Here is the input.
Amino acid sequence: MHRQSAEKVDNIRTRQIASLKQILNLNQPVSASLANEPTWKVLILDKYAQDIIAPLIPVKVLRENGVTLHFLVNSVRETLPDVPAVYFISPTDENIQYLCEDLKKALYDSFYINLIYPISRPQLESIAASAVNSGTMSQVQKLTDQYLSFIALEDDLFMLRRYSTHSPFTFQAINDPSISPEDMDKLIDNTASGLFAVCATLGIVPIIKCLKDNAAEQVAIKLNQKIRDNLRDARNNLFTQEHIRGGHFTKHRPILVLADRNVDLATMLHHTWTYQALIHDILEMDLNRVKIVDANGKNRDYDMDASDNLWRTYKGSPFPIVADAVQSDLEEVKQNEKAIKDLKTSMGFDNESDETIMVFGDTTSKLSSAVGTLPELLKRKSFVELHTNVATTVLSAIKSRRFDVLFENEEKMLNGQTDVKVTELLEKCTTNDDILRVLMIHYLCSSKIPAAEKELYKGFLAEKEIDAAALRYVEQLRSFSNMSHVAELHTGAGVKTEGVFSNFLSNTTKIVMEGVKKMIPKKYNLPLTKLVDQAIGGPSGVGISGVPLPSSNGSGDDEFRYFDPKLQHAVNVDAIRGQPVEDVVVFVIGGGNYVEYQNLVDYAKNKPGLLRMTYGCTELVTPKQFTEQLNALGQRLG
Here is the structure.
């Protein structure tokens, strides 16, 4: 299987969509035939199920799959005695109670109950008792643990949960010194359960690698045990060829690399320069949806669609390149529109809309031969308008917050350059968040900052009435941790402007880049990508029995622990070492970001033999949200 087919056919997004469609098809395999009329039903969800479905299946597709109505499980609902109901909910005590009440009322004709993650025995007994006591036992058609406790945002990107202030998965929660052992165990177990769901959905039993002595190691131990337990369960083995999600992407074992957020804090705070990451930072993109206020003051919601070629091609590109691509597409759409207008005039359809024209077969045929299909043109036009509005809004923030200046100077800091005048840079910041981010990156990147300089910064923050708690936390982290020098981890950072944009952006463009530096970042591997490159060099480190394994490359590989859920006793290293690595899943505990995601995508494109690279995290976190977490941790320091 070559890279293109892997990306289009077999990935975490398409696998989760297939699983969801099977749920909507009353747990029956989905027929490829369009002739089959779907069974009409209602869909009952909780908030987490909504988050899972939202980036994957729009309302239109729900209708195509027979969903006439959808409700939240905690909403007030009327009895629909002739309609089957599909439940897709988390097995929380509250949700189970709502389900039991629905059974007692015989709210629907039949019940297809799908749990996002496995239900407990007491909860199962509670459902059974409600069904028996109300006489609705025969109406419960199926109850299935679906193992879908993750959110697939892209073909190669997933997270376990949507970010929230009180999320149990945050960097703050993991590093809170007051967290109880019980809460930490629950956090580790829930993270491992989410990764187990990912493995089950992809149909893979990976070799697991992680650094020692952090949360990632604890998750690896728990995940390894969960997969081993399931492989021993003959009745419920989720990884057999016969299983509905079973199957193998490659003939070689996949590698799952688990990392702790502490491996790189600077990237979480860095002012970025690529399109998708800028949107997430500035507009706080959530579940692939962007909310903006357009030039006319109207609130607009946009879904960043996987079928949008411009988005698919340029989401990881530097912003000036995106602006040029949007302009180019805009000009092409205008030319096609002009060609259509000229044809309409010559055919006597001046006053008809494009949609009306589409019903005239002969006319549509002539238009198609000239400018391609009209529906495709209209769709492309809507995408161009989307990106024009979004990119213009992003550009406005770039100008007002001087993102280009901040990005350029932070790249120098990350690369260990000492010619950055930090005080002058702080004066150019227009928001308190930007000031804190610049200072924290400076503290992370500098091996030593003189006491007098620190006092100067603290005085600057006090003058601006900015809470310095986040900076205190970063300062303590640097002084007490054994983190490598950040500038060494970011070797290769920087920007270049030489001649790249000589033909870009005429004065007629809607996205006028005047006053903004037209630069692109130098390509280099971020710390996480370097960790992955080291980890997939070979399954050495510490075996499942805790015995050190011989290093395959002499590059500090003994810092890793290695788990193979398929091996019960002996670790046959030689049987695995040296095999090509074709499929890698990278997962960060404590929050992830689009910059790391894109860096891994770029790395995979240039890695010989690597067919699929998937990036996951507990949750995607904006720099502002991460700063708030660091601030909360710093406040605990007093």
